[in-house]
Amino acid sequence: MPIKINHKLTPQKLIAKINRLFELSAEKISTVEKLWNPVHGTPVFTVQGKYTSRGWTEWTQGFQFGSALLQFDATGDSVFLEMGRRKTVELMATHVSHVGVHDHGFNNISTYGNLLRLMREAKIPQNDREQEFYELALKVSGAVQAARWTRIADGQGYIYSFNGPHSLFIDTMRSLRSLAVGHALGHALMGEHDQRISLLQRLVEHAVTTARFAIYYGQGRDAYDVSGRTAHESIFNVNDGHYRCPNSQQGYSPFSTWTRGLAWAILGFAELLEFLENVPEHDLLGLVPELADRVGSRASSKKASRVVHNAATLKALLLRAATAAADFYIENSSSDGVPIWDTGAPNLHRLDGYLEKPADPYNDWEPVDSSAAAIAAQGLIRLGNYLGAHRDVQNSRRFCQAGLTVASTLFDEPYLSTNPKHQGLLLHSVYHRPNGWDYIAPGQKVPNGESSMWGDYHARELALLLLREAKVEKYLTFFGSILLPPKNINS
């Protein structure tokens, strides 16, 4: 097993590293806030240690202000609460009504969602008008995200990416949070002729479609079918709704696995399983076809004829996708848990035995991606906790300890940024290797030493999850206390 899992780690044993991370984090957030001019767009990733913008989609601004809210949650420093709250009100409204992206769960749950969660958890004072403002933003965000809908051949569908109606991105698994929260708040998408469209229905359909077409299960789907391999993009013919092929925008090829996409799958499916545990079972009946025995096979693109008779069938299907992706991550990462940016990167053959030793971000041939590691670590821990609650002790421990092993690696050098002149927190993140967007320093042959806004955010979120576990505080979820008890849920 390539990741050398440390079975002795606990969240409590990581407290010193976590506290150090948040000490460094405070300085980084303050520096970016002081020096960044919003007229330049959104900070995306660093070049020579300074945050810069990159016009593609504005998907990282929520991580910028959400990081301040996580910092407050972890430390109680009200300076960061005020910063995150003020910037959310000033600058995030356009993200709520953005009809051109699949990123609502990134931008709006990280800001409005964190603020509502903090208020529901009584970490900030109750203010009814303020709460209503956050709730309205989250309701609209969930509905706008759900409106990006493509129907496929068997009558199901998916939220399409910014590439257009033909395109399903694996990233969107974590953006489903916007639909989940909107549904939990009692909202629905209204369509033509006042058709009331359930956000829960679209959330579930998207998750099932992703599990069917974006995750591989070793069932002979194609010549590259390895269980857990994950496609960044799945392409459909929008004329008849049939699946056509895998693709990749940021990975090396359609038939290799871009590891940040793999990480989005692990965390997205694990988090969705946590959410569905809090949804009344009767709300899930009949939402999707019965596909558990056919997912991943050539037959999975044919029209299904039966319906789900219980929520357990749905959860088993999503759990299968989550565990396949998690197993693949463990088997295809270096011994310390940090992956190369793509499992099929063209120069991997030059990195002799790279899976049997700690990752080397300064190697000459292929960059690592610490942001993928931060995302995946949280997903592994959540998946392990979910399995533990369902009495799968062996797999629960394996995934939790793998996640802790990755976290321990990231919360220390050479990944934790200790240089006060570097604005990033998590080093050795990459953005878009095929497009050549990542900075390569003089004397280096591949990108390294730089940070990304999503990598920094997810490092903080991972640290906060573990800090709360270590202190036996309320378990951190994106839906917080919103679903407990449910509020006017419409199925």
From the N-terminal CA to the C-terminal CA, the straight-line distance is 43 Å
Bin the strand percentage.
Answer: 5-15%
* Total strands: 9
Structural class, judged by helices and strands?
Answer: mainly alpha
Count of runs of 4 or more consecutive helical residues: 15
- Overall mean pLDDT score? 93
Gross morphology: globular
Side-by-side strand order of the widest sheet? 5-8-9
Main pleated-sheet profile: 3 strands, antiparallel
CATH C-level class: Mainly Alpha
- Rg for CA atoms: 21 Å
What is the number of domains? 1
Helix and strand sequence: HEEHHHHHHEEEHHEEHEEHHHHH
Report the uncertain regions.
298-309, 484-491
Fold-level CATH name: Glycosyltransferase
Proportion of helical residues: 40-55%
**Would you identify the CATH architecture?**
Alpha/alpha barrel
Please characterize this protein's 3D structure:
With 491 residues, the protein is mainly α. The chain has 15 helices and nine strands. It has helices spanning 15-35, 61-75, 78-91, 93-96, 104-107, 109-120, 128-146, 172-175, 177-184, 199-213, 259-276, 311-331, 370-389, 393-410, 453-470, and strands at 45-47, 50-52, 149-151, 157-159, 167-169, 189-190, 196-197, 233-236, 243-247. It has a three-stranded antiparallel β-sheet with strand order 5-8-9, with no helix packed on it. Strands 1-2 form a two-stranded antiparallel ribbon. Strand 8 and strand 9 (243-247) form a beta hairpin. 54% of the residues are buried. Residues 298-309 and 484-491 have low confidence and may be disordered.
